[in-house]
Amino acid sequence: MQVLTFEEIVARLTSLGGSEPRIVVSGNSATPGVLMRALTAALERGRIFAINSQHNWSDHPGLISETPFVGTVMRHDPMLEYIPMRLSLVPRLFATACPVDLVLIHTSVPSNGRVSLGIEVNVLPAAIEQAGRAKGLWSPN
User: Fold this and answer.
1) Domain boundaries, the chain
2) Fewer Cβ in 10 A, N or C end of the chain?
3) What does the radius of gyration of the chain's CA atoms come to, in whole angstroms?
4) CATH number of 6-140
5) Distance in angstroms between the alpha carbons of the first and the last residue of the chain
6) Would you give per-residue pLDDT tens digits along the chain (141 residues)?
7) What are the beta bridge partners of residue 64?
8) Total Cβ atoms within 10 A of residue 21
9) Can you give the pTM of this predicted structure?
């Protein structure tokens, strides 16, 4: 396990390549708030894929929200891009049209070399897998 300061996280996120990197974050009540604050401090542009996010980043006009399920907070996001599809098809989306550059998640403390994704799993295993295949950056929290 590695512990990073907020400034170190921002520096790593700043090094994320591409003009509009796609970041997948856990949604519902498991959106990693501290990591999202670091992300908004680090990036001017990007695409944030979340399902029913409870975190509002719409005050950062360069961050485009993507989701197949629009929750209460996301409904008022002027940069929302709704992707109508079944959740079961999201892994295929990550493998083809929407490659993943970064995954920001909450995990448990490692136990015997393993972690739990906790209460919000849905599309995260597919996002982590695709980010790893693409040599993307993913950061457990």
Assistant:
1) 6-140
2) N
3) 14
4) 3.40.1080.10
5) 10
6) 677 899 999 998 998 878 899 999 988 888 888 999 999 999 999 999 999 887 777 778 899 999 999 888 888 888 899 999 999 999 999 999 999 999 998 888 889 989 898 888 889 999 999 988 876 554 444
7) 47
8) 20
9) 0.89
